[in-house]
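User: Here's a chain of 486 residues. Predict its fold as tokens.
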Amino acid sequence: MKPLVRLEILLLFFAMVAGAFAAEKMNVLFIAVDDLRPELGCFGNKEIHSPNIDALAARGILFERAYCQVAVCGASRASIMTGLRPQTTRCWDYKTPMRNKNPDALSMPQYFKEQGYKTLSIGKIYHASDDDFPEGWSEKPLRGLGPSYASPDGIAAQKKASRIERETGVRSNGPASENGGDVDDDAYGDGMVAKTAVGRLKTLAADKTPFFLAVGFAKPHLPFNAPGKYWELYDRSKIEVPSRDEVIDGLSYDGSSWGELKNYSDIPRTTKWLDDAKTRELIHGYRASVSYMDAQVGRLMAALDETGLARSTVVVLWGDHGYYLGDFGDWCKHTTYEVAAKVPLVIDAPSMKGGQRTTALAELVDVFPTLCELSGLPVPEGLHGSSLKPVIENPANPWKEGVFSQYFKNKPKVGKVLGTSLRTDRYRYTEWRREDQDGQLEDITLIDFQNDPNARRNVATHPEYKEVLRKLKILTAKSGTGIKPG
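Assistant: Prediction complete.
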């Protein structure tokens, strides 16, 4: 055989191998859930009916200690989608579109799109409906696919509430006012999100183009409405009311104002605590909403299996922040503390050993580099997180010393302060720095979970913790999070 012919054959062979490799890029199913506490069956909570997320965890790895960057949806989502901390994204609230502050940032869907992926968004991914389009998405994101109220009474109540809200600014219906009764899952928005996403998965299976499909579920976000069958999973009389004991010993708690909940007319605006009956009602509605959302996750996973896509798809399920359900008498989110900052995180990949769990500290900025490595893509420079692949390969692997969450608060007689909170294996250390005084330190909180698992005492002034404070302050300073935001 002539040398030139052999060379052509070799080139053709390598081209075929390269083409086959390109065709085997891992797809990504990116499942976002709003306001989801890491309290599911797979996290050890046997009161919650979450069989589908439990099954997903049994296929992959569950991160027992994962944390968001900011306990509010818009800012948290801006961080996970860019792999950047909030002092870089400058997104601190729920309403600031990521692209408004970061026109040149490389987002996760944008990067996958540049690598030849079809990138699609269905449901709530960013808070702003069209955020990151056209930069990140191959098609315009699909939002508003179904209502929050489905029963005739609920629809009528919603119309009345909308009219009164326009006139008074207060909703006239309750936050857990609708047990949807005997209605189909698709009567509500999340059911329509799941139905639409299942349809796209079937189309994508035939297309063969690698995809990054982001699916965002709104529940268990307020209002806590779901079909009746999910309410029937729980006995309200058996729901335990959380302790409302006030924090003691100088803890600068700065809890949530729960204004989001107080938008509903049956929630007192000036009360310190909700009574037991209302607390149980809300927890009942929240749990029903969790189980409803879980069923929609099951529809996605069934579609992956039925289409054969499970063999070539990385799945990640994450919550954008935690949620208070009467803990310390508090509601909603909007703090730097454990209940608001801790999130569920589950990852499954075709080559992964199933049924794993890890106590390694993780944070949502780690998701971007992790999905790159699991999909066979190089990790872009400049991301603030670290790929979790070493933990996935060995859940006992030594990992990060700490992870960070931040939140702004208005302190009386002080003004706006930024809380930068470091969570280590044992401690939560929070620095409160004034925005208008070049980052002047205003206060410190130190919680020792080993001696105080319920997080009720601030031991920052206790002399035996002097050396601990020194080390945690250095670690926070090295991270770059303790700076005044731009």
